[in-house]
Design goal:
The protein is of the alpha+beta class and about 750 residues long. The chain has 3 domains: about 160 residues, Jelly Rolls (Sandwich); about 300 residues, Aldolase class I (TIM Barrel, Alpha-Beta Barrel); about 190 residues, no CATH class. The chain is about 20% helix and about 35% strand.
Length: about 750
């Protein structure tokens, strides 16, 4: 059914040019690599701005951008629920829902022109239209609609030139949000989240420093603190370096020496200041992280805890390293060693037959047996560049599968090879972003027995995060794969575990992009990197032991957070543990191990039942201590039919219906959006606290960032929420040996005005 289209007049909400060489005062910059020249905004690699809409809500929102190509031409517009993109330089137009669920994509070539083009994004009561110079290119309906309100973003990429931006709204919904009680100032609290490893990157802590830490929070008006829990000293998580930063491990050990167990010490320090302390458990992050080391790296033998394709992982809890049988796993037929013999042919396949600025002769091939160092392939290789009708593949729960469809494609073919090494990398210089396809279609590898299916892909070199004193952040530092190896089965950027409906292997991947490389390893792992399955009772018991540690430390409550930092490429291949298979066969008569064609919604729901059962147990345990249990809800939680983070249905509606939640942390759930309205409707008439938690630490560096955070506070109060959480502490509080400081007085002033009587 087509959505109702509104055709009434539009009211101007924003119109800005750049003749004065700057942005409007109410325009917030999220990413700023821009410059101004002759009254034109030059975007640089990425410039993102945000504008807070007036009014309660708009059923029709139109965003017009007058722009011209520079080196590229990529523009995106939308909000936290839906975003539309126009990549004119590469003839790609698409719409994303809930950050990662692709609603539609279309290839359409726009002829070059001398002057600027008008790029229009129409969000009209659920119908989204992208137009260029008033010519409709793509139209799609979103799954559900609520009026536009709150923040709207405009993104400019790839050195495009922006002349003017205008935002207009129509059919204002003045009743939208009515009925939500505005919180009086005295009933609205400030909360701060602490992810302690980021603080430990700066210095070890003492009891005196914890006292200073919470005294500083108290001076802002903080009444609650949520502390992410990584386990005690003997859990195993603190044994070795974290995020590639050995100082975190060293500072953690010194902190344990100074204060004993860390969490009980911080509970005591918080209580001295009258601040309530809540322990946050992230069951799927707690048990390991994505950083591996090469097989011949010295750390592999001394510190490696869990073997995986590409090399061992050193940072994880001991329980998980010893009980890999409890992890989310592939089907028995979908993992293991690749077929024997050498690889003899590699096809790099483009999504179309269009010309590219490089050729097959420009491809370099590297090989390695340890994924520590790579050398250029020295064997025989024949090179062909052809245009042919190439089979299209699809991704299934067992891996790639050829379809009956064929597509006219440009193919770069390396043949008559003799690759016997465990790993290889195909590399191209340059970042023209001209050669793309879905990852499952982009590379095909053939051996002596035909095409090989048991392969693991790598799309990034190994990297680490380095603490930056300049901006208080953790920039990602990439390393040369030829010297440090490849991080296999990991996608850079936003963790794929929080991206509903998204499997990176089925997404469009640009070969000649930032790194210009694609790596392949022989074989596939059985399971998710240290990802325990909620379908095992033994998993529940271990998680509950962590909950018990928090309660025994004297915390004021416990909170469960599903979102985590795993970034696998192929979530649809995991979740086929024996209990899942047996229960699915019992209910539906279908053996998941024997077919790739089954009811995906039913499978996601079944997996989610295991986590819901754990949540029931956690509720019972926390209440036996007289303490509340909170939960995180985020856009990670979509209906099963639209996909879900990690392909698990996070059944928050059942959690709320059964009264399992005493509070709700709205993680990136924006006020006055569809998801927020659904949540509030589920708890209507119940005494359940709701706290708004956007990702705010990125605003500490940019100009007027404190005003953005003030806007978040106002928005949370206006929506009737119980409090606002600043996420997270390390952005504002700096630790040095023996001392805590807060070098951001503008933020402190905002907090004091809002939360100190």
């Amino acid at each position: 059914m087509q959505p109702k289209v509104i055709t009434g007049p539009l009211k101007e909400l924003l119109k800005t040019g750049f003749s004065k060489g700057g942005f409007p005062s109410d325009w917030t910059m999220y990413r700023a690599n821009h410059a101004f020249k002759d009254g034109i905004l030059l975007s640089g690699s990425e410039t993102r701005g945000g504008f807070t809409l007036p009014g309660k809500g708009w059923n029709h929102l139109r965003i017009d951008v007058l722009a011209k190509a520079g080196k590229g031409f990529l523009i995106g517009c939308g909000d936290g629920k839906v975003k539309a993109y126009a990549d004119i330089a590469r003839s790609q137009f698409w719409v994303h829902y809930a950050s990662s669920c692709e609603l539609a994509r279309k290839s359409f070539e726009i002829p070059p022109k001398a002057g600027p083009s008008l790029i229009s994004f129409d969000f009209n009561r659920g119908r989204i239209v992208i137009s260029v110079d008033n010519r409709e290119i793509l139209s799609v309906s979103e799954p559900s609609f609520v009026p536009f309100s709150g923040n709207v973003d405009v993104e400019f990429w790839d050195d495009c030139k922006i002349y003017e931006v205008s935002i207009r709204g129509g059919d204002e919904d003045k009743k939208y949000g009515v009925g939500i009680t505005r919180k009086p100032k005295d009933d609205f609290f400030l909360d701060v989240n602490v992810d302690f490893p980021t603080d430990l990157a700066q210095a070890p802590f003492t009891r005196e420093m914890f006292d200073q830490f919470f005294a500083e929070l108290k001076s802002w008006g903080v009444s609650r603190c949520h502390w992410i829990y990584y386990g005690g000293k003997n859990c195993g998580m603190w044994d070795h370096s974290l995020w590639g930063q050995p100082q975190i491990h060293e500072n953690a050990i010194k902190t344990f020496e100074n204060v004993g167990e860390i969490f009980p010490a911080v509970v005591q320090a918080a209580h001295k200041q009258g601040i309530k302390m809540y322990g946050v458990l992230k069951p799927f992050d707690f048990m390991g992280h994505k950083f591996s080391v090469g097989e011949s790296d010295p750390e592999a033998k001394t510190n490696g805890k869990l073997e995986r394709v590409g090399g061992p992982v050193i940072w994880m809890a001991d329980f998980v390293a010893k009980h890999r049988e409890l992890c989310m796993s592939r089907k028995p037929s979908a993992f293991g060693a690749a077929g024997g013999g050498s690889f003899t042919r590699i096809d790099i396949v483009k999504e179309d037959a269009k010309a590219i600025p490089f050729g097959v002769k420009d491809l370099k091939l590297y090989v390695s047996n340890d994924n520590t160092t790579y050398r250029e392939y020295a064997g025989v290789v024949e090179r062909d560049e052809v245009i042919e009708d190439y089979p299209v593949w699809e991704h299934t729960s067992s891996g790639g599968r050829m379809t009956k469809e064929k597509r006219r494609s440009r193919v770069l073919r390396l043949k008559n090879l003799n690759i016997e090494e465990k790993y290889f990398v195909v590399k191209v210089e340059g970042q023209a972003r001209s050669f793309a396809n879905t990852l499952i279609d982009l590379i095909h590898v053939f051996g002596e027995k035909g095409e090989e299916r048991l392969l693991t892909y790598g799309v990034q070199s190994r990297f680490y995060y380095a603490f930056s004193e300049k901006d208080g952040g953790f920039p990602r530092i990439g390393m040369d794969f030829r010297e440090k190896g490849v991080e296999f089965d990991q996608l850079p950027g936003v963790p794929t575990a929080v991206m509903p409906g998204y499997d990176a292997i089925s997404a469009r991947f640009v070969f000649d992009g930032k790194e210009g490389m694609l790596a392949v390893a022989r074989g596939k792992d059985r399971d998710v990197l240290a990802g325990l399955s909620p379908s095992f009772p033994e998993t529940h018991e271990w998680w509950l032991s962590m909950v018990r540690e928090l309660l025994e430390a004297g915390c004021d409550g416990v909170e469960m957070r599903v979102r985590n930092h795993h970034a696998h490429l192929v979530w649809a291949e995991y979740g086929f543990e024996k209990p899942v298979r047996e229960e699915f066969l019992k209910r539906y008569g279908v053996d998941l191990w024997a077919t790739d064609d089954f009811d995906k919604d039913a499978w996601r729901k079944l997996r989610g039942e295991g986590y819901t059962e754990f949540y029931r147990k956690a509720k019972k345990l926390t209440h036996s201590y007289g303490k509340p249990l909170g939960l995180h809800i985020s856009p990670t939680f979509l209906d099963p039919g639209l996909g879900a983070g990690m392909q698990i249905h996070w059944d928050w509606k059942t959690w709320l219906k059964e009264g399992l939640a005493d509070s709700i942390m709205l993680k990136e759930v924006w006020p006055f959006t569809r998801l927020e309205m659904e949540i509030l409707d589920c708890i209507k008439g119940k005494e359940i606290e709701t706290i708004f938690c956007p990702h705010a630490d990125k605003y500490v560096g940019p100009p007027r960032g404190e005003q953005v955070v003030k806007g978040f506070i106002d928005l949370a109060r206006k929506a009737g929420h119980s409090g606002y959480q600043f996420y997270e502490s390390f952005a504002l509080i700096k630790a040095s040996p023996g001392r805590i400081t807060m070098p951001h007085p503008a933020f402190k002033e905002v907090f004091r005005k809002e939360f100190v009587s």
